[in-house]
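2024-03-11 09:14:02 INFO worker-7 job=invfold-0412 stage=load source=structure_tokens
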């Protein structure tokens, strides 16, 4: 009656062993490390080759390491002390970034768990500690407000070109000059007509008529109110973009807020992958579409140092030089979505872009007017442009669906799509300050949180053993397994533990023991009603299950509500709370009953249970 089949006992044992293994890393400390990751979106890090280069650079510098570790995005070297770590960083930096002005890799200080290699190999890593317990990384970003205005003027030049073409107004050239867009005309009548058309379509521009030699011109500049609006939008858009990018990092409870007129503070609590965080935040990658200059002799002259006016020299992914016009046809502002996929004809990896209505119209016009010409798609990152692909325009492309393909792997397509999907920055940003900050409440909070949970557990254990005797001890063991599984889950998910999280663990202990109290009291009730000990155990667990399930489900609903609608510390509390409910159900029902079955299951003639006083004479 009270025996589990062998498979169920094995299942419980395997789950508890898994919990123990994934809890172990939290008992090891951390050691200094140096991390190497890609510094450019178009540069894919080869783990094996990078590990070999790191080891070679350390060997050449006579620096010993305690292990090399690699994942999909980085390579990390572990060291015994901080002095060796600093020396290693300098040696690796020189080996990987010979040109300090244009670094291809991010080499950063980091911390790694001191867990044995066999634990790390199965992704058994310690939990992160939040800003209030451990500290984190602090970044101060400077937003280029002039860059935001310049970016809008470049887009405005393209919009005006399209507007005048749609209204059949001929012009002699449109281009940005400084902080204004200059439009040239052959006669005053066309100039006046263009002014009327632009004034009716755009209220953010102030127009000034003038003359440039034989040509007449209109100088369009943004009004002061429009410039202020653009700058305010740039801050809001960049903060939103940073939120999206940090979400891709999986950092819990980040702090992102404006400081002053043109700065943004970013605090990442408990983050270990400092290099990856710096890389993601420091990227200012935006998409630009330009036409390739195929003028005969132009590329040859550029290779000899005589770059034709209005063009720039780039290099394609294959290493071939490419002469690209400076005029930007389309920017990432018109991008609404980017997803990795495959080319329907060649089945090569590709990135599928979706443009907004204005971008779709501009792209359709450009492709219609430049059939059989090449169009370069550039990724502008940290002030430097790289050609992602330069396809030939075979036909007019409408509908706002654009595909980037050509010599890229599936991983590169995914990375490029992720970066573009995270949102284009409304203005360039630069990290002007980076530091590791101490915990806001200090190590004292860790000590107090740990001791409060420990003494709460001890108090519960003493009460349960005194009141329910052997069944109380079983309940305490089940409670310990609950705590073990909860910590293992948090470690596996790489969650960030904060003070509210510690509070949720303490609450979970109280709720988990409540289920065992219900079971024990139900068994006592069955004994008082005259049931045999074996029947009382069976009925006690079965009949208490519905009550336990109902109470935990209702509590889980409240926890999910906190998780969905809460933010910051509230969500941190809710995550631990919801996981704790799931682990408490497992430990209170399966683990405790498995232990009771092992103790009493084989005893056919059982006369008494060690469950304390049941308040009935003779039992």
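2024-03-11 09:14:09 INFO worker-7 stage=emit residues=619
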């Amino acid at each position: 009656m009270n025996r589990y089949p062998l498979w169920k006992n094995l299942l419980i044992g395997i789950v508890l062993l898994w919990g123990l293994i994934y809890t172990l890393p939290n008992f090891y400390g951390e050691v200094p490390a140096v991390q190497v990751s890609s510094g450019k979106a178009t540069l894919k890090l080869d783990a094996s080759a990078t590990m070999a280069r790191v080891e070679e650079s350390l060997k050449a510098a006579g620096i010993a390491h305690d292990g090399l570790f690699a994942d999909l995005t980085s390579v990390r070297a572990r060291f015994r002390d901080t002095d060796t770590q600093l020396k290693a960083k300098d040696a690796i930096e020189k080996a990987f970034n010979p040109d300090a002005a244009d670094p291809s890799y991010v080499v950063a200080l980091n911390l790694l768990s001191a867990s044995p290699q066999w634990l790390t190999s199965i992704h058994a890593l310690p939990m992160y500690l939040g800003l209030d317990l451990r500290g984190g990384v602090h970044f101060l970003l400077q937003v280029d407000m002039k860059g935001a205005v310049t970016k809008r003027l470049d887009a405005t030049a393209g919009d005006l070109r399209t507007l005048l073409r749609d209204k059949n107004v001929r012009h002699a050239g449109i281009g940005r000059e400084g902080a204004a867009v200059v439009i040239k005309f052959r006669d005053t009548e066309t100039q006046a007509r263009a002014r009327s058309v632009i004034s009716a379509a755009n209220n953010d521009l102030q127009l000034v008529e003038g003359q440039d030699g034989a040509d007449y011109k209109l100088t369009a500049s943004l009004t002061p109110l429009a410039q202020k609006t653009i700058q305010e939008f740039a801050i809001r858009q960049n903060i939103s973009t940073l939120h999206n990018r940090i979400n891709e990092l999986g950092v819990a409870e980040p702090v992102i807020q404006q400081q002053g007129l043109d700065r943004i503070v970013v605090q990442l609590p408990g983050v270990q992958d400092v290099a990856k965080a710096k890389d993601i935040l420091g990227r200012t990658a935006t998409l630009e579409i330009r036409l390739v200059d195929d003028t005969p002799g132009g590329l040859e002259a550029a290779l000899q140092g005589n770059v034709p006016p209005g063009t720039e020299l780039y290099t394609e992914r294959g290493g071939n030089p490419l002469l690209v016009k400076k005029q930007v046809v389309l920017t990432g502002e018109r991008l609404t979505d980017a997803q990795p996929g495959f080319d329907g004809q060649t089945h090569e990896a590709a990135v599928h872009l979706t443009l907004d209505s204005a971008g779709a119209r501009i792209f359709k016009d450009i492709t219609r007017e430049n059939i059989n010409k090449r169009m370069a798609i550039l990724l502008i990152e940290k002030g430097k442009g790289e050609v992602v692909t330069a396809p030939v325009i075979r036909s007019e492309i409408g509908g706002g669906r654009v595909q980037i393909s050509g010599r890229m792997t599936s991983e590169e397509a995914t990375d490029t799509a992720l970066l573009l999907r995270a949102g284009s920055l409304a203005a360039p940003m630069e990290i002007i300050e980076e530091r590791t900050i101490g915990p806001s409440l200090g190590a004292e909070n860790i000590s107090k949180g740990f001791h409060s949970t420990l003494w709460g557990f001890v108090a519960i254990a003493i009460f349960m053993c005194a009141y329910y005797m052997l069944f109380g001890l079983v309940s305490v063991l089940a409670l310990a397994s609950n705590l073990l599984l909860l910590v293992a889950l948090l470690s596996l998910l790489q969650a960030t533990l904060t003070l509210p999280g510690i509070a949720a663990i303490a609450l979970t202990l109280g709720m988990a023991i409540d289920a065992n109290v219900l079971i024990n009291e139900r068994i006592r009730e069955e004994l008082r009603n005259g049931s045999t000990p074996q029947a009382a155990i069976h009925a006690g667990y079965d009949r208490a299950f519905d009550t336990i399930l109902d109470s935990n489900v209702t509590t889980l609903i409240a926890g999910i509500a906190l998780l969905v609608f809460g933010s910051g510390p509230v969500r941190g509390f809710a995550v631990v709370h919801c996981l704790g409910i799931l682990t408490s159900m497992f430990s209170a029902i399966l683990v405790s009953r498995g232990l009771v079955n092992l103790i009493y299951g084989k005893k056919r003639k059982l006369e008494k249970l060690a469950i304390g006083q049941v308040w009935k004479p003779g039992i």
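2024-03-11 09:14:09 INFO worker-7 stage=report msg="The mean pLDDT is 82."
2024-03-11 09:14:10 INFO worker-7 job finished
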